[in-house]
Amino acid sequence: MADPLVFVPGLGCDLRLFAQQATVMGRRRMVSVAPVGQGERMEEIASELLSQLPARFALCGYGFGGAVAMEILRRAPDRVLRLALISCTPLADTPQEAAAREPWIVKSRAGRLDDALKEALPAATLAPGPRRADYIAAWQRMARDGGPQAFEKQNRALQRRRDQQATLRKCKVPTRVICGEYDTLTPVKRHEFMAELIPTARLSILPDAGHLPSWESPEALIEVLEDWMKQPVTA
Predict the structure, then answer these.
(1) Is the per-residue pLDDT at 1 higher than 90?
(2) Average predicted confidence (pLDDT) for the chain
């Protein structure tokens, strides 16, 4: 039987982020989308998820979910059969990046979540095209449904996350590093750097996507992930 596949969504996201991938890939294997709205530290979130996940699984994290996936790998490397990291970074927030999240949290607490969301994911982080505004609006609706408390907790967890370069250097499972060519939030160079850290990594750059490749290039992402799932897992 094919490996169970766990998707970990990003900041402000839920199962809608990976709806198309989960539907298509779920025809061949068990697929789940992990909830990530609880906990203000990556360690808490990873620990809670590990108590709910299968004994061993393939793990695919996007953005914030990529940071969660790396913490899961750090804590339980024997349970992760393969790893995919999308639109994310192994680096901790710099002091400047951590400070930049504070106004978002303040606005969220003050009932101005919409203003915070506009700043957290600008339209320019996506590939140009007629659907760009639609994708941004859909992400904002999703984050709004999650609520200001979840948005604040996730930003706190990102502020406090550890550097995972050492974790990735030790990774021995089939790994795919994936990004959109137009992503300016976590750009291609950051993903090239991340792929170089991982002995088993392959880098996939999606030419028609930015920071939301699961929506911008859904079929291309499915193709990359299916290829990743076919890579043999060695003992």
Answers:
(1) no
(2) 96
Residue 21 CA from chain centroid, whole number: 14
Per DSSP bridges, beta strands 175-180 and 201-206 are parallel
The secondary element (H helix, E strand) that includes residue 100 is helix 95-109
Are 11 and 142 in contact by the 8 Å Cβ rule? The answer is no
Q: Exposure string (b/e) for 76-92, b if CB count within 10 Å is 16 or more?
A: beeebbbbbbbbbbbbb
Q: Where are the domains of the chain?
A: 5-93+155-230
- Return the SS3 of 97: helix
Q: HSE, CB side, 13 Å, CA atoms: give it for residue 19.
A: 8
Cα 16 to Cα 139: distance, rounded to the nearest angstrom: 9
pLDDT tens, residue by residue, 149-198: 999 999 999 999 999 999 999 999 999 999 999 999 999 999 999 999 99
Q: Quick one: which of 91, 85, 38, 40 has its CA closest to 66? A: 85
How does pLDDT run across 13-46, given as a tens digit for each residue? Answer: 999 999 999 999 999 999 999 988 778 899 999 9
Rounded CA separation 149/128 (Å):
31
CATH 3.30.70.580 fits 5-93+155-230, yes or no: no
Contact 6, 53 (CB under 8 A): yes
CA-to-CA distance for 141 and 118, rounded, in angstroms? 11
Q: State the Cα torsion 96-98-100-106 to the nearest 10°.
A: -150
Containing H/E element for 66?
helix 64-75
**How far apart, in whole angstroms, are the C-alpha atoms of residue 202 and residue 41?**
29
